[in-house]
Amino acid sequence: MLAADTVVIVLIVLALIALVFLAIIMKFFALYIQALFARAKVGLGELIGMSLRKVDPRMIVLSKIRAVQAGLTVTTREMESHYLSGGRVPNVITALIAANRANITLTFKTATAIDLAGRDILEAVQTSVNPKVIDCPNPASGRTTIDAVAKDGIQVKAKARVTVRANIDRLIGGATEETIIARVGEGIVTTIGSSDSYKSVLENPDKISKQVLAKGLDAGTAFEILSIDIADVDVGENIGAKLQADQAEADKRRFQAEAEKRRAMAMALEQEMKAATQENRAKVVLAEAEIPLAMAESFRSGHLGIMDYYRMKNIQSDTQMRNNIGGGTTGGETHKK
């Protein structure tokens, strides 16, 4: 009885294992058949291994089928490795197929490196086949024109459209569209600034595009500039006249400040002179106050006699009379007139 029970248990365990194995096979059987008929060569063991490694088997199989049908040589292990690295396998396969159709040299290693670098490899291939037009300046930045001032002081506002093609070889480590926009904007400002007059810019707007294009602005970028077209050119403000007016206003304020400073210094000097005059008058009054004292001392010491005193008084009276007569005559003449 014990042996019979053991056999039954073993049979039950085997049956369970068989059911689990059958369930796993049924889960991946459709994908296996699909890959088999598409000659993608993906075995059941590989499908089970993908599931255990947390890889999406369906995505890998479908990507492998697309690659094989397009004539590409990409192994399942390579796609799994890129998936586990955080890459976008379908996007890479689509980009490889597009590059192959367009006769663009692009290897799976290069495509995965570009994808892992954060660039959209599919968009890069599409841009390489179908050139892209970039507005300069970028409307998203809030600016609609590139403003520059010619030598005559007139402001010129320009819009440019840059046609670029992606350079797959320089896509890794190459500068992005923002660099292209910045360089083109700088070239436009330099070209307009070197023009003698705004009229020459309006007459020959293609002069801007030719000079900017000749600078080789796509060096070190992920793009190749095909053309730079000036979409619009407008005349802005007279910056030169405005700057001159501002300078004149600044000079006016400076001169007014200097004049006010001189006026304040003159007023201070006037007050100082008035104070000095009052001081001198005080000294005269003090000196006059000492005269009687000096005369008294002279009388006491015998240096001044009474006749000398009367003679001095007579002279003072005569002088005062002459002054009164002179003043009266002047007043009379004024009255007669």
User: Which regions contain 5 or more consecutive residues with pLDDT less than 50?
Assistant: 329-337
Mean pLDDT: 82
Q: What gap, in angstroms, lies between the N and C termini? A: 169 Å
The arrangement of helices and strands along the chain is: HHHHHHHEEEHHHEHH
Number of helices: 12
Sheet having the most strands = 4 strands, antiparallel
Shape: elongated
Number of strands: 4
Helix amount, in percent? 55-70%
Cα-atom radius of gyration: 53 Å
User: Which class do the helix and strand fractions yield?
Assistant: alpha+beta
Beta-strand percentage range: 5-15%
Q: Could you explain how this protein is built, in words?
A:
By secondary structure, this protein is α+β, with helices and mostly antiparallel strands. Among the domains are: 14-129, no CATH class; 132-240, Band 7 domain (Tetrahydropterin Synthase, Chain A, 2-Layer Sandwich). Helices cover 66% and strands 11% of the residues. The protein has 12 helices and 4 strands. It has helices at residues 2-37, 44-52, 57-69, 76-84, 89-101, 108-116, 121-129, 177-193, 198-203, 206-213, 239-301, 306-336; strands at residues 132-136, 146-149, 154-166, 223-238. Strands 1, 2, 3 and 4 form a 4-stranded antiparallel β-sheet that branches. A hairpin with a 4-residue loop joins strand 2 (146-149) and strand 3. Helix 1 (2-37) packs parallel to helix 3 (57-69) and helix 5 (89-101) packs across helix 6 (108-116).
